[in-house]
Every structure is written in C-alpha cells, then in structure tokens.
Design goal:
Order of helices and strands: EHHHEEHHHHHHH
Structural class: mainly alpha
Radius of gyration: 19 Å
Number of strands: 3
Number of helices: 10
Largest sheet: 3 strands, antiparallel
Distance between the termini: 26 Å
Length: 219
C-alpha cells in the first residue's frame, strides 16, 4: 500500500502585490461602492465607520489595508494543492509561517515606495504614513468595526446561530492567546493543550484567523 499524499507543493516564493486588485479596492473606496454585509474591504469598513460618526478618513482605511498587502508581498509563501485536510478538500492553499506576519521591519518603507510609484495622488511621505497608521491602529477602530459586522451578520442570519457564534468566540480566544505570548507564536500542539480541543477543531479556524488577524501557527 502506498503512503497517502495529503498535499503537493506547487509554488514557493514571494508573491507581488496584485495591483489590479489594489486599484479596484481604492476605486471602490473613493466611489463609495460597497459589497456584501460581511465584506471587510476598506470601502465597506469606512461606510460603517461613517455610520457610527467615526473621525478617520478614507485614506487611513486604505493605508491600513494596503500595508498588509505589501507585507504579504515581502514574505515567502508556499502554495500547496491540499487533498485532505480539515477544511476545503482538493483546493489550492497558501501557507505562511505565522511568525513572518509580525516582522514589520521595512514594511512601511515598502508601503511608502509602493504608493509613490502607483498612487501619485496620495502623499507618500514615509513619516506621515507611519504616524497616520500608528494613530489609526492605536484606536482599535478596525477591530471594533469587524465585531459590529459579525454581530449584524448573526442578527440577520439566526439560522446560523449557535455554532457560528461558538466558532467566532473560540477564534477570538485563540487570537487573544497568541497575541498575549511574548513571541506571538505557538505550535499546533500547544494550542491543543491550552484549549483542550481536538486538532481538527483548531485547524478549521486557521483560514479565518489568517485572514482576519494575520495569525498562523506551526504544525
């Protein structure tokens, strides 16, 4: 009997920023175009922010979102075709070492350079961008808006109810735990031992944690 193959590496390396996607997000933000009730793009977050009489401008939301896109472009990524996992069988998945999410050295400089090259209408001054993002992130506004989006979703879709709410709360507990660690990293075994949950349950939340919190973990 041959060994079961769970995944095949199809590509490794850095992926450039998708300029078409970034320009599309910026255009939607400038035009006030919004999407689904669960969308967390700059335009949708900004619209909700204004509904709540927030004080930050469109540029702050765009810079915060774009910084992550630039950060990801600087990280080595491994793309795998996954045949059997706890979620989404037989699909392409991109894996990133969770520790690399928190290596911020040079990211803001790269963001400044990217804006200077592709968005001449935005002031690309490095110090200005750094201060603006610091103030924006210190406020915690995005985290609060994302919570509001989740609450609205559950109110509008009661049938999804208890299980989705449990998953959301558990994902928040995982994020809070990893953020509390000195190096902001943990192994899969450490998470299982800390939360006393099956590996499959923890693994199911990996895509959500990666996308919303920039969190990954070692297997």
């Amino acid at each position: 009997m041959t060994d079961r193959v769970d995944e095949v590496v199809s590509r490794e390396g850095k992926s450039p920023v998708d300029l078409k996607r970034v320009r599309g997000a910026y255009a939607d933000l400038m035009d006030g175009k919004t999407h689904s009730d669960t969308c967390r793009c700059p335009s949708c977050l900004y619209k909700l922010h204004k509904e709540k009489r927030g004080r930050f401008d469109k540029e702050a939301f765009f810079l915060d979102w774009l910084e992550l896109e630039v950060r990801l472009s600087l990280i080595n990524q491994t793309e795998k075709i996954v045949f059997e996992t706890a979620y989404d069988r037989g699909k392409n998945k991109t894996f990133i070492d969770g520790r690399d999410y928190f290596k911020s050295c040079g990211t803001l400089r790269a963001l400044s350079n990217f804006i200077e090259k592709h968005f001449p209408d935005i002031d690309s001054n490095y110090r200005r961008i750094k201060l603006k993002l610091w103030r924006f992130r210190k406020s915690g506004v995005v985290k609060e808006l994302e919570k509001e989006i989740s609450f609205r979703y559950f109110r509008a879709h009661p049938a999804k109810g208890k299980e989705d709410w449990k998953d959301l709360r558990f994902a928040q507990r995982i994020a809070d735990y990893i953020y509390s660690l000195k190096n902001r990293e943990a192994t899969q075994r450490e998470l299982r031992r800390h939360f006393q949950k099956p590996i499959e349950k923890i693994e199911d939340l990996r895509p959500w944690l990666n996308g919303n919190y920039g969190i990954g973990w070692k297997r």
